[in-house]
Amino acid sequence: MAGSRLPRQLFLQGVAAVFMFAFASLYTQIPGLYGPEGILPARRTLRPQGKGRWQQLWETPTLLWEAPLLGLDTAQGLELLSLLGTVLALGALLTRPLRHPLVYLLLWAAYLSVCQVGQVFLYFQWDSLLLETGFLAVLVAPLGLPPNHKQAPQGRPGGVSPHEGLAFWLVRWLLFRLMFASGVVKLTSRCPAWWGLTALTYHYETQCLPTPAAWFAHRLPVWLHKLSVVATFLIEIAVPPLFFAPVRRLRLAAFYSQVLLQVLIVITGNYNFFNLLTLVLATALLDDTHLAAKSSTSRRKRTPSSWPKALLAVLALLLELAVYGLLAYGVVHCFGLEVDWEQHVIRSRTTFTFHQFSQWLKMVTLPTMWLGAASLAWELLTALWRWVQVRGSLQKLCAAVPLSVLGTATVALFLISLVPYSYMEPSSHGRLWTGAHRLFGTVEHLQLANSYGLFRRMTGLGGRPEVVLEGSYDGHQWTEIEFMYKPGNLSRPPPIVVPHQPRLDWQMWFAALGPHTHSPWFASLVLRLLQGKAPVIRLIQNHTPSYPFHKQPPTYVRAQRYKYWFSHPWEQGRWWRRQWVEEFFPSVSLGDPALDVLLGQFGLQDKSPPRARGSSNTLSQALHWIRRQLSPLEAPALLWGLLGAVGAIKVMQALLGPQSLPRSKEEKHKPASQEHSVAASKQASPAPNISSSSQTPRRKKSP
């Protein structure tokens, strides 16, 4: 494989950016979700069970156990972790020395600590994905800046450590598991929309938080929607095995297919940091040669210097053509693609049965594991070969230590990941090595490896269900309580909130899919609205005057279930249309026995009063001051402000970097003939062959 120093740096910067967005987004919602007056107060989740300190920390791994030592309650500890995580991630994003394993270990530990008390509002697959990616970043990050070494024998840069890039392979394996499983579960779920290729005729309208572009995408012709579903299956099921292809151009083609899919999702839906995180994982498919942005002309001039290289180039080209031809044939055969020249459309249909797909999945699940094992074995052999080339006994010994540690960790994490990966095919899961099951069971609570499968079933086939809260002072005149982000007002366009995730709005979407008893937290939300708790109100409307009961809490609260659809093109001034379905939550008031029964049934009645916050605590006062300064800002504006600040600093770094400084006097007086002679000697030297990934030299890390 070609050098991977530039992709690794890009990956580490991307992970830092995602952590920054995740921590900052969560910080804005902590008081309303987890504060003493929040929907699910976090202090109820951490109660000592009389166990030893280290046993307690291992069973519930969260740094928030230590919050009382700082004079903070659990919610304040959450705020502190979120602020520190945001600042630390921002530093790692901007400065290369902070892209250190210790920094990423702290980020991972902080987010794991948050997830331990996050309850249902942090039960999303992208939270698990961020934890798994964050731990891989600990292994990928270099311990220090690479020294400048002289050129090693056989044209290999001597500055390349044997273990470099070994853990980076796990990122590619994680991307494969994510995409392949996400494609497979769409068909194993037996969802009629996915099997009928009509899923996208509903998706844009029924997804949690659509963007304005989703309204226009929803109006595309049905045949194009069905063709897009076929393309989705191609990108998520057929393309991922190419992540391990020996031909570099196949891996690059797989990379750009993933980029295309994620960009289209970003345009039409608000999926917080998930798409950015997936793009960050896709950097494992890149190499230094591609990121160096060499001109196509210079590449065209490079010709193989010997017949073996020319033969390898021809074989690689033939393999590429065979793969593309096989993919095209498979798509046409499996989805019956036909061109209707009269109506100028491409017709598609699923030509295989569920039984045939199940048999195919049973046949390929174990081979895909062996494919990953073979690819990992190649990486290990490559690292071992680089170690053999290290000169000097002391240097060999020093290089053997990190190689042994990272090699063992990489193999262990690969074995652990096989267990959740095999969940999609039960028979293969049962045939796994028992040692892998035991190893996974030991560290499962650390979320080092997780199962994935996004968009398993298409919901809202008869219209998107939507819960609308209403309040009243007399029980007769009802006023709707409109959320900032989720659909409600028929005339309000869908918002753009990415990379922020309004977690209450997301859970409201899930709550609408079933009865309110399936979402116990909803009763607590109703209670807080009846009490007029400001932190919860700010989750609904950050601008207080926009909340209809900002002067006095409502006496009664209820919820109705509606079906929502995108408006028709001729309905001017409207983005949605809706129809009432049923009552979702009955009308209740404070002290209502029905509400008290629900709260008691779900264990949401917290009779113990919250601990008084120490106003004399300097740290507590500092947290309170920061909260006061940032509370007027809406979360998307805060995150976009962070993004703008990062962009401005990056531009300044580029303008003031070493490359823009004037040359020294010696360089200025350097004879031009000497410069020309150096350039000529470089052109005369044989160029490395870029058609074979294993022969491309690694580049040094960019400054």
From TrEMBL:
Residues 660-703 are annotated as: Disordered. It comes from the Eukaryota. This is Lipase maturation factor. Residues 448-586 form the Lipase maturation factor 1/2 C-terminal domain. It holds the Pfam family LMF1_C. The keyword Calcium does not apply. GO terms for biological process: protein maturation.
